[in-house]
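Consider today's protein:

***
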Amino acid sequence: MATIEDVQPIQELSEGVEDVPQLKQYRQELLNIAANMAQVVAQATDTAIQQHAGEIRDQAEYAAEEIGERARQLEIDQMDPDYEKRKAERAVLEEQRKQKEAQEAQQGMQQLSGMLGGLFGGKGGGGGGIGGLGGLFGGQQQEQAAPEAPAAAAPAPTAAAQPSAPAPAPAGTACRSCGTALNPGAKFCPNCGTPTANACKNCGQEIEGTPKFCPNCGTPTA
């Protein structure tokens, strides 16, 4: 069973080739791989194998089509009587392009070397170069190491105001349950709700004497 590694070398060999018969041979090799992978896809029962073989088939067919297109275009170009002349001109232009790129790369390296030489060579004449860099990065380190100002201390929490205790009430005018002072005629204590003395526990009606039931609502007084 072929693999992707079988397709890629053929693609790489075909790059830059202008021999039409050679390109057609590469194309046929790729078509053979694609046909074999198509048979594997048709006969295999394992889904993973089918998927893998299908990917190889598609890759081989695509590469074969690309090489075939190049071969057809070359056949047309080579019918031109000036084809060899134009081919030589293209080769010259390509060589000039490569030389220009190499020259630009060399100039870039020279400029970079000059910049580095100015930085590191200055330590022998006037304290520039490395000394200047040391002052620059040293100042940055000092700024980074400067202690931060302490944060303002949070104000101490003040003690919550405590409710003042109720003032003592005169005898006979205080709640019999909590001792809160009662207003004259009050039926219930304003602090705890306890009925005042001689009052109905249900409706607050003042009761005179010692009746068994409230004369207002009938609630037992016991």
